[in-house]
């Protein structure tokens, strides 16, 4: 059964919610000893499509060796190299658990929402690109409205929306890793999470 969760990134407790959803899933994956891979899809050449690489950039200094990361601002994973990256992942890792992260378009009232689903995502769907579905779990952030001229919509997406989503998703992932496979004490973990939430309150109030 496909589980689907929708979070509002503008809610202060969205980091806690994402942390708890992912932690529950990570515990099961860790027990099965499958390598966890974060595949952050997108390009830095388009504001609306830069969510994945921005999240990858934030995570590269946070998760260290706790998980494998593909897709950053320096080395993005996009339409032209996605198939090669997937081949590399499947060649290097045995039965990897892939968490695919990407931007998407949706209705105007859902802009800023985060969707977590136990199913692959279809990268490039908004641009009518024929790419393979990817991921055991998908995390998508709705950055703008869907409809006509998706390329122009992505190009004219507010950076504020993308950065807010990137902050919440990267922090939620980071704290879920600390909770499940990190080695910090519970008190340190709670202090770090509280500090993050307070910073977001100040940054986006």
Structure at a glance:
With 205 residues, the chain is an alpha/beta fold. It has helices at residues 14-31, 51-59, 82-92, 150-155, 159-180, 186-204; strands spanning 4-8, 36-40, 68-70, 97-106, 113-117, 137-145.
Q: What distinguishing features does this structure have?
A:
single chain, 205 residues, alpha/beta, Rossmann fold, 41% helix, globular, 6 strands, six-stranded mixed sheet, 18% strand
Can you offer a commentary on this structure?
A six-stranded mixed beta sheet has the order 1-5-6-4-2-3. Mean pLDDT is 86; it is low at 184-194. The protein has one domain (4-204): 3-Layer(aba) Sandwich (Rossmann fold). The protein is globular and about 45 Å long. The protein is α/β, with parallel strands linked by helices and 205 residues long. It contains six helices and six strands. It has helices at residues 14-31, 51-59, 82-92, 150-155, 159-180, 186-204, and strands at residues 4-8, 36-40, 68-70, 97-106, 113-117, 137-145.
Mean pLDDT: 86
Protein structure class: alpha/beta
Order of helix and strand elements from N to C terminus: EHEHEHEEEHHH
The radius of gyration is: 16 Å
Tell me the number of structural domains.
1
Q: Please outline the major beta sheet.
A: 6 strands, mixed
**Reading side by side through the largest sheet, how are the strands ordered?**
1-5-6-4-2-3
The total count of strands amounts to: 6
């Amino acid at each position: 059964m496909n589980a689907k969760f929708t979070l509002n990134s503008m809610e202060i407790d969205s980091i806690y919610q994402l942390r708890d959803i992912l932690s529950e899933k990570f515990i099961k994956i860790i027990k099965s000893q499958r390598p966890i891979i974060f595949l952050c899809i997108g390009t830095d050449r388009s504001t609306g499509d830069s969510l994945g690489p921005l999240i990858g950039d934030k995570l590269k200094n946070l998760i260290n060796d706790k998980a494998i990361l593909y897709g950053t601002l320096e080395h993005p994973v996009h339409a032209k190299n996605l198939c090669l990256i997937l081949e590399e992942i499947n060649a290097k890792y045995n039965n990897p658990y892939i968490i695919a992260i990407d931007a998407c378009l949706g209705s105007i009232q859902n802009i800023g929402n985060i969707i977590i689903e136990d199913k692959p995502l279809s990268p490039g769907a908004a641009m009518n690109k024929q790419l393979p579905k990817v991921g055991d779990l998908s995390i998508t952030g709705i950055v703008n409205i869907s409809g006509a001229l998706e390329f122009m919509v992505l190009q004219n997406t507010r950076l504020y929306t993308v950065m807010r989503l990137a902050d919440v998703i990267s922090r939620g992932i980071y704290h879920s890793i600390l909770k499940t496979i990190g080695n910090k004490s519970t008190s340190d973990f709670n202090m770090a999470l509280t500090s993050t939430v307070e910073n977001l309150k100040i940054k986006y109030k």
